[in-house]
Amino acid sequence: MWVGCGLLFFVLFSFLDWRFFFAQRGFIWGFYITALVLLIAAYFYAPVIRATRSWLELGGFNLQPVELLKVGLILIYATYFSRRHIEIAHWSTIVNSFLLFAIPAGLVVLQPDLGSALVLASVWFGFLLVSGLPWKRLFFLGTVALLGMILMWTFILKEYHKERILNVFYPDRNPLTYNYNVNQSKTAIGSAGWLGKGYGQGSQVQAGFLPEAPSDFIYAALVEEWGWFIGILILGAYWWMLTNILRIGKRAHQNFERFVCLGVTIMLLVQFFLNVGSVLGMSPVVGVPFPLLSYGGSSLVTIMFLLSLVHAIRIRS
Q: What pTM was estimated for this model as a whole?
């Protein structure tokens, strides 16, 4: 159902001339504020699912507001930096852009959903980098970020967050508790072979040893049943898609359109590395979905909407 909705959105919105809407700053701000209001509502009224308050129940469907916020943040940053990239060295430009992501990211951390907060932070930092941030400013921000991480480790992160980070450096640590998911994921991938075990024949998936197989560890589940060849093919197809989005942005006529393509690439690339990295034990498990593969209607539809914007830019370029 969600794939059908996502494809319908892609077809309808790809051929819509968005230039009129994007020229209206009220439209973009309205989208961003609406997503922020939904995020606040989720914090106060959403039911607890998987120990987080991330999903709002709307008409029998679960909506994850942070996915809408990712779209709103990309659009508002595209507007902001396309007009102010010349003033990127000014502290007012940096601070104002920081607040645009920091306020909703703080709400996301309280849900708690550190993975999505990390994606929002990466989108902001990616826009700063490509806007030509001077090295002195970059060094200062890096120092502040390091101090912020130390404070988070000391006062904010819970015990299981710390254990997940330590497990990256000590893979044999806590094999039956905090590192159990990653160990099962490695077993699923390592035992797959080039052609896999066959559809519905994956021992780790079908026997329930691999937790969150449809969502967080979908890549391990696919590789176990379809093989390393399909796993490599998926990675190659994903890389092809991202390079084409960048190519479309390079050919776009307006800075706003270039920044939209850039923002989409940053968001997808960060989610890709966080998900595959956690599956392979190279990064902490933070619950970030594999874009276009992991189960989740909100993620799938919003990504298809972003891809429709990219395709609309391609058509008009």
A: 0.92
